[in-house]
Amino acid sequence: MVEIPQDKFFKIFCSRVKEEIFHPIIHHNQIWQPDPYDIESIHQESRDCFERLLNRINIQEQLGSGRIMLLLGDAGAGKTHLLRAFRNYTQEKVLGYFAYMQMTSSVSNYANYALRYTIDSFDKPYCESSGSMTGLMHLSNALIERRNIVSQSDIEQLRNGELNRNVLTDLVYKIADDILNKERERFLKVDLDLIRALLYLQNDEPATHARVRKYLRCENMTEYDSKMLGNIAPRIQEDDPERLLQALAHLMMAVNSGAFVICLDQLEDIHPADDAEIKFRRAMAEMTKLAEIPNVIVVIACLRNIYELLRNNLAEPQRHRIEYDPDVIFLKEQLNEAEIRKLIGVRLQDLYDSKRIDSNFEESIFPFQNETPSLLAGMSTRKILDWCRQQREQSIRTGQPPKLPENTNPLPIPDPQPKPPILKLSQLWNDYLTSSHPVPENESELLQLLRRAIEHCTAELNNSYKFNIVQRENFLDIDIEDIEGNIKQHTTVGFCQRPPQGGALARQIDKLQTMADKRAAIAIRSVEFPSDPKTKIAIRLGEFVAKGGKKVMISDSDWRLMVALESFRKQYEQQPEFMHWLQDERPLLSLPSFQQILELEYIPELEPPIVEPEPSDFSRMKIGMHQGYQPSPYEIEISQLVRHATFLGSPGSGKTTLALNIIEQLLLQGIPAILLDRKGDLCSYAKDEAWRSPLSDSIREQMRKNLQDKVEVTVYTPGAIEGQGRALSIPIVPNGLGNLPSGEREQLANHAAFSLGRIMGYKDHGQDKSRIIILGQAISILSELNKDQALTLNNLLDFIDKEDPRLLNAIGKLETKLFKKLVQDLQTLALGHGNLFAQSGELLSTESLFGRSSDNKTKTNKTRLSIISTAYLGNNENVLFWVSQLLLDIGRFAAKSPSDKLQGVILFDEADLYLPAQSKPATKEPLESLLKRARSAGIGLMLATQSPGDLDYKSRDQISSWFIGCVKEKTALDKLRPMLSEAKTDVTNKLASQSTGEFYAIHNGEVNNIKADLSLVQAKQVPADEILRLASRGRENRITTFFQNFFRSS
Q1: I want to staple 136 with a disulfide (CB 3.0 to 4.6 A). Which of 122, 195, 584, 638 is the partner?
Q2: To 10 degrees, the CA torsion angle through 662, 668, 674, 680?
Q3: Cα end-to-end distance, the chain, whole Å
């Protein structure tokens, strides 16, 4: 063999080809696909046991009962990989029929749940060698083709699509009677109506197949549906699903001594559900009853620790039935060096083979170093694959080969567990699928359903591909465009549902090819394409494929899923976790039919959320540890942050770190945050280096990675020179002020006037105060007159200068001579502080800062972290004026967006500047007002200061949570004493002795001494020029995205 240079292998390794090879999680739809990476030596004991159970059924002797095989293991041990291997072995060896279901369910009737998923399982391709033939068709064929029980002429007539309904029904009844009469003993326990229903599948009319599946799912059928199936009565009684499952088992045994394998995966997902013990008992009762049938094998897979909790709810005889004969199998989590070498090597071989480069994984695992397997030995399959995935991703980004694991006992990612909201949606979806979802029978309606489903795939792909679809007659032209705007495919899709008799199907194929012209033609069909090689249509279909055409069968279960997903999305898409669930589950893209139609080169993997284990109550968060003889976690209610929090402590006390720790946890739960950064340290979140600094705790390191994936960090630099940084312009008053109720409008207008007065040097008394009042009235009137227009400084100047009658009417007795100086001062303000009012860049909007404006909805599903650097605004008066406008806009948002849940938080670092004890800056009144009003809108204000003696405590009753670190200043202690004396424990004399990270947490009078957790990102000073660069980066990305979207739509 010719030696191939290693750089060719490495180039392929660093490409985006086959990115899924190291994906560690098996999704449920992958169960039905061959596993090219299966290593038979892994879990060999379990495989041997399963094969013995299968072979036992095929021994011709009287069997007492079926068997239950219980697989227990830790997360990441490879349970679902193993079940996939069981499925492939069972059906590739034609030893039976395989049903798979995840027990992510809250249903009470598990027989019905099991039946629906059994029929869906049988609606999948039986095995790779059978092409698109489903399990149901395989069973139907086995029923009619065995041992010459049915004459060949009857078989051919039954498969003739041109029979009228009465003749078809008579023939079905005749064949069913022949089977029972000729093999009465073998079919003694088999249900006659079930035989008839399966015989109807031999007729390839799609509507007939859909009606058969309705019957098999025990769904209600119309009188017409029953008539079309020879007046078979629907099975709609409560115990019918159980009887039909038993009937299917008896039929499989009668037809070919086939096994009926039922796999229950992820049994642990029952555990968080309400009444888990009851539901577990019901599920196990149903499975043990079904396992009484000799050819039934029930395989149960569960986390070991969860099963130990649940098993105590079972009666001892039932427990013995599950755990003995065969004995419980405990899956070995740790792989040895040889297994790891095969695990990695077989994947690399597939990668290189895809580019037609020969490799020998037995000899090399290049580009991984040869010592890698020995260093990874002892880890689970999931952790090993995920480590390899991370290494490949790093190589793709850097062009450097993978490194060796850092130590001989690596402890990488903890196994991902779905967060309860995601788990809840998975449970809802699982249960929702078992409901009735009627599929349109009209081809035109089906084509529209398919079109909507393909368009929906954009959301499943997080907009990484765009599908442009145009309908011509009864065909869909689909252009697939990647994120860079490159057209990847031109296809034309058309139905080819007609029967082959009389050339009807061939004519449809011809029309499709004509319509497609130079585009790739895709023929879709709801039943199998004809495959009899003796027929003319088989030749015609071969020619179609030779010219680049594709045949895709979309099964009834696939159509039902499309219908179900449409209504499910309408019902749940408003939930914040819906898009994460959708992109993780990918219900449509995981279907083989959609994979065939779209044939995407690269589908970006959504990395599973990996977070630090959290308490079961997700309304709480751990922020530190109680200090004392027996340390324990200290948690706070998220809801208490609606009533605001204050963080006090001298420099180095860790107050900002504690505040950031809380904010990070809120961001992980989808709650946006705004950080007001005076010193430049909070801008660290925008630095790539801050997310890569070493952390000693691997769990925290992965939690930080999860946070980085979750948030969208945006830095604003108001006041910076135009063209640098990212501007954030402020209006004179918040947009939409005129739409507020009059009382709130006037209050915000007065605050705006006071802020303008302060920056013009006005005092809060005498004529200055009168001018502020005039200004407030002018702002209020103009806002009401121009509700949908932004109020500019020029608008205000002109309105006052002209002494508009409406203004004169409003101010009453105030002398108009005050107008002249007011106008002059406003003109001076416009000239001297133009950078504050420059209309370049984005306009200040709380919706936008929280990532909730309309232009954000389609761009990102991440949670916004907006950081506003005030370093470029100049002196404190400018800063205070700008922040006052921010406070006013937050007030406007609060007035129009009431909420009883936390919508977002805002951190005011060095808050003593905005709420000082000894002065009244432009920010003070708006901030005091916001402390009262923000909680009704679910907005939490977080005030942090290293100068607690300078803060005004008059509003302390509006703040429910206080975190007080080391405070030594006498002035500060004296100011804190009244508040601390109201607590149940007075800790004033203990504050000075606290070290970094130690705080007294006070909430509703309760005092706790805690050691605060560190934030995941360490806030360090960022130079001013680098802040501008970080802000510009976000602005450039936004502009690039804008133009990309613009040109795509052109």
Answers
A1: 122
A2: 70
A3: 53
Decide: 293 and 249 in contact? Cβ < 8 Å.
yes
Token pair for 438? 């009627």
- Rounded to the nearest 5°, which phi and psi values hold at 369? -70, 150
Q: 999: which residues sit within 8 A by CB, 6+ positions away?
A: 624, 649, 653, 654, 655, 658, 963, 964, 965, 1009, 1010, 1012
User: Do residues 16 and 602 touch, judged by C-beta distance below 8 A?
Assistant: yes
> Mapping DSSP to helix (H, G, I), strand (E, B) and coil, where does residue 522 land?
strand
787 DSSP 8-state letter: T
Within 13 Å and on the Cβ side, how many CA atoms surround 100?
A: 28
For the four alpha carbons of 680, 685, 688 and 694, in that order, the dihedral sign comes to: positive
Pair of tokens at residue 168: 């078809």
Q: Please name the residue that has the structure tokens 């992958």.
A: 30
d(CA 572, CA 425): 8
Residues 797, 828: Cα–Cα separation, whole Å: 11
Rounded Cα distance between 720 and 716, Å, is: 9
The answer for residues whose C-beta is within 8 angstroms of residue 265's C-beta and 6 or more apart is: 28, 79, 80, 83, 100, 101, 102, 103, 301
Partners of residue 897 on adjacent β-strands: none
- Measured distance CA(163)–CA(822) in Å, rounded: 93
Task: Please report, rounded to a whole number, the percentage of residues in the chain having pLDDT higher than 70.
Answer: 89
Residue 961, classed as helix, strand or coil, is strand
Tokens 């699982």 locate to 430
Tokens in use for 1020?
């360090």
Closest CA to 846 of 899, 793, 794, 795: 899
CA distances from 124 to 137, 175, 552, 558, 829 (A): 10, 26, 13, 9, 73
Q: Are 679 and 996 in contact, with CB atoms under 8 Å apart? A: no
Assigned token pair, 495:
């139905």
Size of the chain, expressed as the number of residues it contains? 1050
Mean pLDDT by 10 residues, the chain (1050 residues): 70 89 82 88 92 77 78 88 93 91 74 92 85 89 84 88 88 94 88 96 90 94 94 93 95 90 86 73 89 94 90 89 91 91 91 76 79 92 92 92 71 45 76 86 93 93 90 94 84 94 93 94 92 82 87 92 94 87 89 89 51 51 86 90 93 93 94 94 93 82 89 91 84 74 72 83 77 86 79 83 77 69 85 68 86 57 92 87 89 85 93 89 88 88 92 84 91 81 77 91 88 93 92 62 42
The count of C-alpha atoms lying within 13 angstroms of the C-alpha of 718, restricted to the half-sphere facing its C-beta, is: 29
Instruction: For residue 202, give both structure tokens.
Output: 């031999």
Residue type, 658: L
What crossing angle do the helices spanning 420-433 and 578-585 adopt, rounded to 10°?
60
- Beta strands, E only, 666-813: 673-677, 711-716, 728-729
Residue 376 to residues 337, 386, 404, 702, 1029, Cα–Cα distance (Å): 7, 12, 9, 19, 41
Instruction: Give Cβ neighbours of residue 772 (< 8 Å, ≥ 6 apart).
Output: 750, 753, 754, 756, 757, 762, 764
CATH numbers and ranges of domains, the chain: 6-21+340-398 (no CATH), 43-58+74-330 (no CATH), 421-598 (no CATH), 622-719+849-876+885-1050 (3.40.50.300), 731-843 (no CATH)
Residue in 833, 850, 824, 749 with CA at minimum distance from that of residue 791? 749
What is the Cβ-side half-sphere exposure of residue 897, based on CA atoms within 13 angstroms?
Answer: 19
Q: By C-alpha distance, which of 891, 895, 892, 841 is closest to 868?
A: 841
User: Model confidence over 432-469: pLDDT tens digits?
Assistant: 888 888 899 889 999 999 999 999 999 998 888 889 99
